[in-house]
Amino acid sequence: ERDHLKRLFEQAPLAYQSLDSDGCFLDINQAWIDTLGYTREEVIGRNFAEFLHPDWRNHFKENFPRFKAMGEIIGIEFEMAKKDGTFLEVAFHGKIGKTPEGRFQQTHCIFQDISSRKRDEQALRESEERFRALHNASFGGIVIHDQGIILDCNQGLVEQTGYSIDEL
pLDDT digit string (tens) for 19-67? Predict the structure, then answer.
């Protein structure tokens, strides 16, 4: 059973880490190593903040005590430093492990690389902003409709029809 659990831990598809009460690494799995590029020996015993983008280090130091007090985090986002010096954005989920007496024992956290999702979201926002700028800069009337119901229109249509955008 112990070997089975060890295999599950090492072959889990999401990066796992466990921290002590000071925020120092107790354990990581292979997905963590594969994602960030460090060896287990380079990580165990070091503080989690050392693996964060410098802008996030104080945030972790201030909020780690809250996590320990609350007992759970869901979807907390950080930028982490890879061994090659690049950064990736990750979303963390975690719970606090406690002794049978209810005292803090260690954290149990998984994270997922959300860098590509964040880039896609930014590209979509920029595309929407470009569309909106072109839409509003056109001298001709532009209307977006669904079966004759106007969903959106530009200032050019307002000027051509004499109706306000709200009226249209």
Answer: 999 999 999 999 999 999 999 999 999 999 999 999 999 999 999 999 9
For residues 110 and 14, is the Cβ–Cβ distance under 8 A? yes
Cβ–Cβ under 8 Å, residues 91 and 99: no
* Burial class (CB within 10 angstroms; exposed 0-12, middle 13-18, buried 19+) of 111: buried
**Residue 61 and residue 138: Cα distance in Å, rounded?**
50
Give the residue, 8 or 74, on which the prediction is more confident. 74
Contact 152, 143 (CB under 8 A): yes
**pTM of the predicted model as reported, rounded to 2 decimal places:** 0.72
Burial per residue of 51-87, b for 16 or more beta-carbon CB atoms within 10 angstroms, e otherwise: bbeeebbeebeeebeebeeeeebeebebebbeeeeeb
For 38, phi then psi, to 5°, come to: -85, 165
